UniProtKB/TrEMBL annotation:
This is 2-alkenal reductase (NADP(+)-dependent)-like. One of its GO terms (molecular function) is oxidoreductase activity. It comes from Salvia divinorum. The lineage of its organism: Eukaryota, Viridiplantae, Streptophyta, Embryophyta, Tracheophyta. Coiled coil: none annotated. Keywords: Oxidoreductase. PANTHER family: PROSTAGLANDIN REDUCTASE, PROSTAGLANDIN REDUCTASE 1.
């Protein structure tokens, strides 16, 4: 038998209807053996180092049928993406001591019975927390949505909403490496300054200070938008569709303005897709993980050469995890929201 340890876990108390509050989650301490049980083949036991807070997790807190990812089980630990260290393995692809990123529990230690969503940490010279962000799921999301779906050409105009978040900050920088003109929107002066001064966006605006999104977009894109990377939905999407150029592309990554609403807002001008011949496509990053090696080949040199930068907002300790997750939906975080559970 392995050593028995206390294991702090973040539990979903019950399904939520609209927005999520910290009181919808609780902390529980259970016991765990630091050895894989006999007969549990193909499993990995890990110590979780960093956990990723991501907007899609709210949909898993709701009782949804036929969703692309299963709802959480109330009175059980929630799960998400994280960076972990392998403590024991009965899987041929993973060895004790290796560092991995991918699907894990919101707890100090996890027994992962199906490690098909685990990837080995390839480059230990870069911060481990980057594998919750720029080198993990959000980085892949930015890469797939921008390059694979939108096929950018030099000189095109690009608009990114929620542009200071985990994905948006990368889309803007990828757009600059592709020779595009890029404008982002965010929800505070501090975030707008980050977009312009740290991430190299050509321009940026605070959407909370704009009474009329349509007029704002006309101001920043007098000749229209070639590529829109959609993170927000609702009224912003409606305004963008009025301002798209002919043959524009919209990569639909998320709609964070809608996730906390019991009755999502409609979009009333979809006929723009016809008249402007716009291609609008939704995507889920897990369909594209076969491109991960190609993505790393592109992004790691850019990071090491200082051509791409990444901002994280790190909350310390698993006790801070519920508050960090809830803060995503009010824009409390600046950059990628990470929870540091253990530093090694």
């Amino acid at each position: 038998m392995g050593e028995e340890m206390n294991n702090k876990q973040v539990i979903l108390n019950n399904y939520v209807k609209a927005s999520v509050k910290e009181s919808d989650m609780s902390l529980r301490t259970s016991k765990i053996q630091l050895k894989i049980p006999s007969g549990c083949d193909g499993a990995v036991l890990v110590k979780n180092l960093y956990l990723s807070c991501d907007p899609y997790m709210l949909s898993r807190m709701k009782k949804l049928e036929g969703h692309y990812v299963a709802s959480y089980t109330p009175d059980s630990p929630i799960t998400g993406y994280g960076v972990s260290k392998v403590l024991d393995s009965s899987h041929p692809n993973f060895k004790t001591g290796e560092l991995v990123w991918g699907g894990t529990g919101w707890e100090e230690y996890s027994l992962i019975k199906d490690p098909s969503l685990l990837f080995k940490v390839q480059d230990k010279d870069l911060p481990l927390s980057y594998y919750t962000g720029i080198l993990g799921m959000p980085g892949m999301t930015a890469y797939v949505g921008f390059f694979e779906l939108c096929s950018p050409k030099k000189g095109e105009t690009v608009y990114v909403s929620a542009a200071s978040g985990a994905v948006g900050q990368l889309v803007g920088q990828f757009a600059k490496t592709a020779g595009c003109y890029v404008v982002g929107s965010a929800g505070s002066k501090e975030k707008v300054d980050l977009l312009k001064n740290k991430f190299g966006f050509d321009d940026a605006f605070n959407y909370k200070e704009e009474q009329d999104y349509n007029a704002a977009l006309k101001r920043y894109f007098p000749d229209g938008i070639d590529i829109y990377f959609e993170n927000v939905g609702g009224k912003m999407l409606e305004a963008v569709l009025n301002n798209m150029k002919l043959f524009g592309r919209v990569a639909v990554c998320g709609m964070i303005s809608q996730y906390s609403l019991e009755q999502p807002e409609g979009v009333h001008n979809l006929s723009n897709l016809i008249t402007k011949r716009v291609r609008m496509e939704g995507f889920i990053v897990s369909d594209h993980y076969h491109l991960y090696p190609k993505f790393l080949e592109m992004v790691v040199p850019l990071i090491k050469e200082g051509k791409i930068t990444y901002v994280e907002d790190i909350a310390e300790g698993i006790e801070s995890a519920p508050g960090a997750l809830v803060g995503l939906f009010s824009g409390r975080n600046v950059g990628k929201q990470v929870v540091a559970v253990a530093r090694e």
